[in-house]
Design a protein that fits this description.
The chain is α/β, with parallel strands linked by helices. The chain is built from 14 helices and 13 strands. Helix 4 packs antiparallel against helix 5, helix 6 packs antiparallel against helix 7 and helix 12 packs antiparallel against helix 13. The structure holds guanosine-5'-triphosphate and magnesium ion. Guanosine-5'-triphosphate binds next to helix 8.
């Protein structure tokens, strides 16, 4: 294990909390902290056992000023998060004490940790692989309970294991092909192309399953992207608020109230939904509204599901008609709002224009909301969510590499079927293996690590 410099960071989120944690990792962690720490019991950190807790104070050694009362935990390599010596200083939660402690540590030779550097150390020191490292970022930023559960299971390594198994099975086939190349002149048996092709077919199917799980992965971590769209004033923000059961978005009788998209997560029959309230669609007045309207169209394009909202108490107009044709019917649910205004009577809106039966609701009286929730759940489940058990891919990076790997694998299989030379086949298999290695970090370059750890917060 290479010795990396000692680094420090404030690990709790900024702002005022009950406690704050300043964390150090590296060979100098204990010595640097010892310089600033006076234990109440008089014990020295340098002699402290691993995983022990010490009560005392942090003092500025230059001025003798007492900074804060603290609890210091000492964890010695290798049984730590980074596999290096780690010291965590638990202090009071105010930003001032934490900042002062951090700057004293930096004065004494610790470097300032970059985002994700603690987890990066854990990866570099071989404690976790890249998939696990990325799941740490996901746990920190999980927005849904299901997403958290999924990230936790990746930290446990189930996805890594599945990928490693597939990788080994391709490597085994590759070894056979390469042996055939190396010993071509000698009298070794020719490879059984049919058997090899079949073997690789099994690996391809497993890759295919993983790629398919990516939609579930995204849904679990982000929610089903659900855009609420329609003309100004039809009640989009009111619908968001009533589904959320709180007054999140501003509602007024002025058309063009919502300027920017607003996103909130709700849960419908166990399915996390990311509801996106959008600016009303119309030829925009000013520049701000114009940008908002463009974002609304983008929300439609990127949505898994579109709630297409109309004011049912009004006759449809050209803008409504334009909207109907611009949404993909298989991903849309048509909703006629303000049904409290025409209670017992037919809506004035011509339902014949719609390609499906609309749901009648009132965002004001909450009438029809449970039918709307049922329709949403039914449409998502009809799309056939793949099973939720087993390893799930939830990073775009992983999905793309799996797709690249599968493409190379399919080319190798094709080559076996049509009688291409062994060199060509070995080359494709090598590419397939390399992509899989890149996912777990067996084959990586520093640039990639920079990209992955960039999205972490400092101190993790
Ligand atoms: N009677 C009745 N009024 C409603 C209903 N839903 C919304 N409204 C009213 O319609 C007006 C517009 O509601 P909003 O929710 O702001 O509409 P919006 O579609 O978000 O409008 P923009 O943000 O301007 O595009 C407000 O005065 C709401 O109180 C409803 O179900 N029934
Ligand atoms: Mg609005």
């Amino acid at each position: 294990m290479q010795q990396l410099p000692t680094i420090a960071a404030i690990s709790t989120s900024l702002g005022t909390g009950a406690i704050g944690i300043v964390r150090l990792t590296g060979p100098g962690a204990i010595r640097i902290c010892e310089d600033l720490f006076q234990s109440n019991s008089g014990a020295s950190l340098a002699e402290a056992g691993s995983h022990t807790l010490h009560y005392g104070a942090i003092t500025d050694p230059d001025t003798g000023t007492r900074i804060d009362e603290v609890l210091v935990s000492v964890m010695r390599a290798p049984a730590t998060y980074t596999r290096e010596d780690i010291v965590e200083i638990n202090c009071h939660g105010g930003p001032v004490a934490q900042q002062r402690i951090l700057s004293l540590l930096l004065d004494r030779g610790a470097g300032l940790a970059t985002p994700g550097e603690f987890t990066r150390r854990a990866f570099l020191n071989g404690r976790i692989d890249l998939v696990q490292a990325e799941s740490v970022a996901q746990i920190v930023s999980a927005r849904t309970e299901a997403g958290l559960k999924m990230a936790m299971s990746q930290l446990d390594g189930s996805l890594s294991r599945e990928i490693a198994e597939i990788r080994v099975s391709i490597l085994e086939s590759m070894a056979l092909v390469e042996a055939a190349i190396d010993f071509a002149d000698e009298d070794v048996e020719e490879i059984d192309r049919g058997a090899l092709e079949k073997e690789l077919g099994v690996a391809a199917a497993r890759l295919g399953d993983l790629i398919e799980s990516a939609f579930v992965g995204r849904v679990l971590s982000e929610g089903v992207r659900t855009a609420i769209v329609g003309k100004p004033n039809v009640g989009k923000s009111s619908l968001l608020n009533s589904l959320l059961m709180r007054e999140r978005a501003i509602v007024t009788e002025v058309p063009g109230t919502t300027r920017d998209t607003i996103e909130e997560i709700i849960n419908i029959q166990g399915i996390p939904l990311r509801l996106i309230d959008t600016a009303g669609l119309r030829p925009a007045g000013d520049e701000v509204e114009q940008i908002g309207v463009e974002r609304s169209y983008r929300a439609i394009r990127e949505a898994d599901l579109v709630l297409c909202l109309f004011d049912g108490s009004e006759r449809e107009d050209d803008q409504d008609r334009a909207l109907i044709t611009s949404v993909p019917p298989e991903r849309a649910i048509f909703v006629l709002n303000k049904c409290d205004k025409f209670r017992g009577q037919q809506p004035r809106f011509n339902q014949g224009l719609l390609s499906g039966e609309p749901v009648l609701v009132s965002a004001l009286t909450r009438q029809g909301l449970s039918q709307l929730r049922d329709r949403i759940a039914a449409l998502i489940l009809a799309g056939g969510l793949p099973p939720l058990e087993g390893p799930i891919v939830s990073h775009e990076r992983h999905k793309h590499l799996l797709e690249d790997s599968l493409r190379s694998l399919e080319r190798a299989r094709q080559g076996l079927r049509v009688g291409l030379g062994e060199e060509v086949i070995a080359e494709e298999l090598r590419a397939a293996v390399a992509c899989l290695g890149e996912i777990t970090g067996e084959e990586t370059v520093d640039d990639l690590l920079d990209i992955i750890f960039r999205d972490f917060c400092i101190g993790k």
